[in-house]
Structures are given as C-alpha cells and as structure tokens.
Amino acid sequence: MITIRKAQQSDCSFLASIILLAENTGNEITAYTKMFNKTNEELLPIFEKIINNETQGHPLAYKSFLIATENGVPASAFAIYKEGEFGDSNHLTTGALMTGFDRKSMATAFGFLKNNSELGLTKKINTLQIDCVATLPEYRGKGMLRQLMHAAEQDAKMNQINELQIQVWKKNEGAIGAYSKLGFKIEEEKLSHSEKENGKVLMIKNI
Predict the structure, then answer these.
(1) What is the per-residue pLDDT across 38-63, written as a single tens digit (0 to 9) for each?
(2) Helix, strand, or coil here: 125?
(3) Are 44 and 23 in contact (CB under 8 A)?
(4) C-alpha angle 20/23/29, rounded to 5°?
(5) Cβ–Cβ under 8 Å, residues 32 and 20
C-alpha cells in the first residue's frame, strides 16, 4: 500500500539519501559531489545534519519534503516550497549549506557554481518549486512520482498557487519524458558552455 505524508524530523537520514540520489543521475553538470569534491558516502552524514532544521522555503529542510511510503517504509520523496514565501530560496539554501560546511569548502563550491553560472534559471515568485526528486531503485515503476505530484498539486491549490516549476538536466530525457506525461511543459533552456549538448531545462505546469 502506497501512502503520501509530510516528512518528519526522524526522516532526515532517508531524505539525505534522496537528495544525493536526485543529484546523481549521470546527466548533471553541477552536483554536490562536484561542488564539494566529496563522495556520496562522505556527504550523507553532512546532509543529514543540514536538513535537520526548522526553516522553510527551500529544499534543504525536512519540513519541505513529501514522502511516499510502501507499507510504511519510505521509498520516494521530493521537496516542495513556495518561492519567495520566506525569502529567496537560493539564499536560504546557501544558509543551510553553511551549517554543514566550513568557509573554505563553501568558497570552493561558490567558485564552482560561478564557473557554471550560465545555467542559472530564475525561479518565479509565488510558484510551487519541486526539487530533489528521487525514488529508491527497488521501488521504481510503482507510480509513486504520480502520487507525490498529485499531493503537491493539492497543496498548491490549497495555498492558491497556480503554477508548478521543476528544473531538469537537458540530457535527462527519462525525467523530461516522465514530467511531460504529468502535464509539464518546457518553458526555458540554458545551455552549458562546457557541455554543448547539455544544460538546464525549466518545466512548468499550470493548475
């Protein structure tokens, strides 16, 4: 039986694994492993600490997540938040990262992102942002993403939000196809200077 629920503080370990799984599809140009030059195993306890916070309005807080469980076991999740409700989500995300990394590591990460600044897509104020989407491999193909997305849309309607946004890597054709089937359309693309056939794609859905 699949059920959808909001994340709790006790889910931080699972959510840390979801964040890193979402970041490692094989299509990404920027990822936390590249930003901080660490393996997923090294990052896992750091992100478990980072997301264990009470802030809102960005993807690195456990309160932002919806979780799909099968027979009570967490299997899939993504973060949702209203852009601009608590301030710029990028700034809030940076603040969260600073609770887990020292200044030198953050400076290196900022330098890496600056070198890939052409990939920046603007998040529209008052839209529902969907981020850190992943399903554990053994639970894929069970329709969990569709159920999570339905729950996100219901949340948006309750909060009088009429547009959902999600960012995807251009080479991740599987994800683009999956979101297209859920009613998302490509709104904007930003190509990479280093990988000419790859880049960031902004997809939106009006509800």
Answers:
(1) 999 999 999 999 999 999 999 999 99
(2) coil
(3) no
(4) 145
(5) yes
